[in-house]
Amino acid sequence: MEKKILLNERDIPRAWYNIQADLQTPLPPPLNPETGEPITPDMLSQIFPMNIIEQEASVERWIDIPDEIIEKLLIWRPTPLCRAYGLERHLGTPAKIYYKNEGVSPPGSHKPNTAVAQVYYNKISGTKRLTTETGAGQWGSALSFACNLFGLELKVYMVRVSYNQKPYRKIMMETWGGKCVPSPSPDTNTGKGFYEKNPEHPGSLGIAISEAIEDAVTSKDTKYSLGSVLNHVMLHQTVIGLEAEKQLASVNEYPDVVIGCAGGGSNFAGLSFPFIRDKIYGKNIKIIASEPTSCPTLTKGPYIYDFADTAKMTPLLPMHSIGHGFVPAPIHAGGLRYHGMSPIVSKLLIDGLIEARAYTQLETFSAGILFARTEGFIPAPETTHAIACVIEEAKRAKEEGKEKTILMNWSGHGIIDLPSYDAFLSGMLGDYVLPDEEIARLVKDLEKYPKPR
Amino acid sequence: MNIYCSQLGMIVEFYYCISMHEGLPCLSTPRCWANRMDIEGYLKGLMGEEGFFNYFASLPKTRLERIVELVNNLVEKD
Question: Nearest to residue A265, comparing CAs of A367, A175, A342, A181?
Fold first, then answer.
């Protein structure tokens, strides 16, 4: 009975896998919103070094990982692939459940896989300082860790509402030498506009992005770094799946189902892309992206308004595209506009290579608690979405009496996210439909606030 | 009344969702709250039917498009 399948350091992948090489139709180019023309490398050179821009557009199947990056990845990689015997027993399932434990990295998540690579490429391009934004704090922590490894300065704009609720994230970033400020901040023109009107402005990811980009564009030797969504980020994360392939092969296993949670898409991509390549070339494998029913990007598609008929005679109607067997034309025509989701992951969904499922916040936190009680590790709230999906698949295997092999990306630990667990355990979270009287009360409460324009 | 926000990795209050963008709602608000209330009706009540449609009618920009737009604006100002 083998609990952890370990890979020797010498077996760490030496090249990243670029799924763009195997897409049957290429990704539509991102467009400049001003001109409608494709975005050129020159436009991005203000904020990214050229070597990263080249990776963003590359269609080469394999991209070598420089030795300097390997040396840093070896601090925590290869990560263990674990068999979830405790969870299997609890569920009474014939399924074999494996999880790739990305929570063993110093910042506690998969994020440093790309942080280390991005900082390295910036370093050799002459960048002295990086800026970024962070919402949950995982990315800011990972980038701070990586900047310290290569001797770059870092400034992180963290959404104030999150900054206030997660003081340990700021401490982590500053322990590694990064500077973390709440956004909106008085340090940029964008931030100042909000900050001067209300120093306690809760902030938003949009404002934090604007501040980080303004800082990068207007400061000397400074570039910007992003931890999700972009192609090069997905690329760097593929070490996860490439390691998992080798680890499973070492015990003569191959997954029937691969599962990852999908927010911006990077941890899902990291585990699944090497297996999607197999699927493209004929392997029978189910690949599932799991997400919250709150903010269901993939299962409901962009929330847009469109005419229900091509003659545009009907009123504008809300349309949730994917999941209803229908993709509104503007989504095809305009590219893949899933708000906050990686365009490659969105395309894989449209192409039918992956499927998406959504879980409620009670289902996911219950899954997280069950995992902690059967396997010991407390998962990050994001990771609990993957666990909820694993549990569903394992139960299905039991009903069908099939001995399936399920592989999951355990993308991070939740030790710094305990307030969310506290909210769940103390009954402060709900999925229930709000009764009319509660909505009426809410409307009354909100009368004291300014109305949205 | 709160919800788990996957962008921020934390629990947020309803008021944050509908006002976080200088008094305007997060673009994800209709999706996030649709299972729990008539959020569309609620927002139309606040923003007016036309304001609601104007605000939510456009396709969201991808992250890269948003970044390029920000850079363009900064370079033009310079």
Answer: A342
Q: For A162-212, how does the pLDDT look when each residue is reduced to its tens digit (9 = 90+)?
A: 999 889 999 999 999 999 999 999 999 999 999 998 898 889 888 899 999
Contact between residue A243 and residue A273 where contact means Cβ atoms under 8 Å apart: no
Separation of alpha carbons A114 and A116, rounded Å:
5
> Would the CB atoms of A205 and B74 count as touching at under 8 Å?
no
Quote helix, strand, coil % in chain B, to nearest 5.
55, 15, 30
Please give the C-alpha separations between residue A7 and each of A76, A95, A300, A400, in angstroms, as whole numbers: 12, 23, 38, 33
Query: Which carries the bigger pLDDT value, residue A445 or residue A276?
Result: A276
The verdict on pTM exceeding 0.95 is: no
Report the DSSP beta bridge partners of residue A223: A130
Whether the per-residue pLDDT at A435 is higher than 80: the answer is no
For residues A330 and A82, the model is more confident at A82
Residue A403 CB contacts under 8 Å (≥ 6 apart), including other chains: A94, A95, A96, A397
* Cβ-defined contact of B59 to A194 (cutoff 8 Å): no
Q: Phi and psi at residue A15, in whole multiples of 5°?
A: -145, 145
Q: Where are the domains of chain B?
A: 2-77
Q: If pLDDT is split at 50, 70 and 90, which confidence band does A51 have? A: very high
Phi, psi of A391 (to 5 degrees): -60, -45
Write a three-state SS string for A260-325.
EECCCCHHHHHHHHHHHHHHHCCCCCEEEEEEECCCCHHHHCCCEEEECCCCCCCCEEEECCCCCC
Q: Please give the backbone phi and psi of residue A183, each rounded to the nearest 5 degrees, phi first.
A: -110, 135
Structure tokens at A225: 């770094």
> Residue A443: its chain B contacts at CB < 8 A?
42, 45
Distance CA A28, CA A7 (A): 37
Q: For the structural domain made of A24-60+111-231, what CATH number should be given?
A: 3.40.50.1100
B10 to A419: CB separation less than 8 angstroms, yes or no:
yes
Chain center to CA of A285: 22
Cβ atoms of A63 and A55 closer than 8 Å: yes
Query: Quick check: do A4-8+65-108+237-448 and A24-60+111-231 share a fold?
Result: yes
Q: Which CATH class is domain A4-8+65-108+237-448?
A: alpha beta
Contact flag B47-A136 (C-beta cutoff 8 Å):
no
In tens, the pLDDT along A278-302 reads: 999 999 999 999 988 776 777 766 5
Q: pLDDT (tens digit, 9 = 90+) per residue, B56-73? A: 766 666 788 888 888 988
d(CA A329, CA A306): 9
Q: Is A418 on the interface with B (CB under 8 A)?
A: no
Instruction: Tell me the nearest-neighbour CA distance from B23 into chain A, angstroms.
Output: 5
Distance from C-alpha of A172 to C-alpha of B76, rounded to nearest angstrom: 37
To 5 degrees, how large is the angle CA A60–CA A146–CA A218? 85
Q: Name the A residues in 244-303 with CB < 8 Å from any B CB.
A: 263, 291-297, 300, 302-303
